[in-house]
Specification:
Low-confidence stretches: none
Number of helices: 7
Oligomer: single chain
Number of domains: 2
Mean pLDDT: 97
CATH topology of the largest domain: Diaminopimelate Epimerase, Chain A, domain 1
Strand content: 35-45%
Helix content: 10-25%
CATH class of the largest domain: Alpha Beta
CATH superfamily of the largest domain: Diaminopimelate Epimerase, Chain A, domain 1
Order of helices and strands: EEHEHEEHEEEEHEEHHEEEEHEEEE
Largest sheet: 17 strands, mixed
Shape: globular
Distance between the termini: 6 Å
């Protein structure tokens, strides 16, 4: 019998029982890929991470080896698992930087103190812009009318490690009532370069927020999607929704009563978007052991 220690942490919030839940298994060296997938299904969080310990020298050179799983699959990259796992690895030592070695490559997470509280910010890969999408086709896939999607900015696929289709919804009321036929949405995504839809709206609940966001997928609704938020930061800077290097707030998870605060920024360098950063806070809520 294996005894596997884990930490549960709520990410993109400073308040327990808000934000996005994450289970972090701190020593997965004895687990197979199949066992990791089964454990992720057991936790039933949007993602679960597994740390495979390395020597001090190897960790210093290439980073902490971490694998990320949803209930259905392993992901090359995801935002809140990256930030949350770095938070756990930082522990009480107070390191200024944690480097994660993910399937997508190295991701740096830097820590600072803001208003007396720790704040972590990950630097994601430079964005890759994919295809643009038809308002009519996306509206049909989402069960909306064409007018429900804003016309002054494009629907664009963007990836900083995973490709999201960024969909600008016109009104907050439409966002709040949004439900998806997942089969219909997936049929559209299967024909495109997108992995998931990420819906955003410039009308917000918190007047300090720049965007209100939702991400609904096969495991329900995601309270905070850090990977999509990085893609959205690049999209905002490219299309003038945010200025270069301006840090703005994305609110998410409000409809499912897990409010999340995701801070993003990106740099416009000539005609290229670079230096995508996604940050926020996290709070540990549980520790335990899984007997496997």
């Amino acid at each position: 019998m294996l005894t596997l220690p884990f930490v549960n942490i709520d990410v993109f919030t400073a308040n327990a029982l808000e934000g996005n839940q994450l289970a972090v298994f701190t020593d997965a060296s004895a687990l197979s890929t199949e066992q990791m997938q089964r454990i992720a299904k057991e936790t039933n969080f949007s993602e679960t991470t597994f740390i495979i310990p390395r020597s001090f020298e190897e960790t210093k050179e290439v980073g902490h080896r971490v694998r990320i799983f949803t209930v259905n699959e392993e992901l090359p990259f995801a935002g809140h698992p990256t930030l949350g796992t770095a938070w756990v690895l930082r522990g009480n030592g107070g390191a200024d930087e944690i480097i994660l070695d993910l399937n997508v490559g190295k991701i740096h997470v830097r820590f600072s103190t803001e208003q007396g509280q720790p704040f972590g910010e990950m630097q994601q890969r430079d964005p890759q812009f994919g295809q643009t999408h038809s308002r009519e086709e996306v509206a049909s896939a989402l069960g909306l009318n064409r007018e429900d999607i804003a016309s002054d900015v494009p629907i664009h696929s963007v990836s900083t490690g995973m490709m999201f289709v960024i969909v600008p919804i016109s009104r907050l009321s439409t966002m709040q009532l949004l439900t998806l036929d997942l089969n219909r949405a997936q049929q559209y995504l299967d024909k495109t370069d997108g992995k998931f839809f990420y819906m955003v709206c410039r009308e917000t609940v918190d007047p300090k927020a720049r965007l209100h966001a939702r991400m609904i997928f096969y495991n329900g609704e995601d309270p905070a999607t850090g990977s999509a938020s990085g893609c959205t930061a690049a999209w905002m800077v490219k299309y003038g929704v945010a200025q270069s290097d301006e840090r703005v707030l994305i609110e998410q998870g409000i409809e499912i009563k897990r409010p999340s605060r995701i801070f993003v920024r990106a740099t416009m360098n000539g005609d290229q978007v670079v230096n995508v950063r996604v940050g926020g806070q996290a709070v540990e809520v549980a520790r335990g052991e899984l007997f496997f």
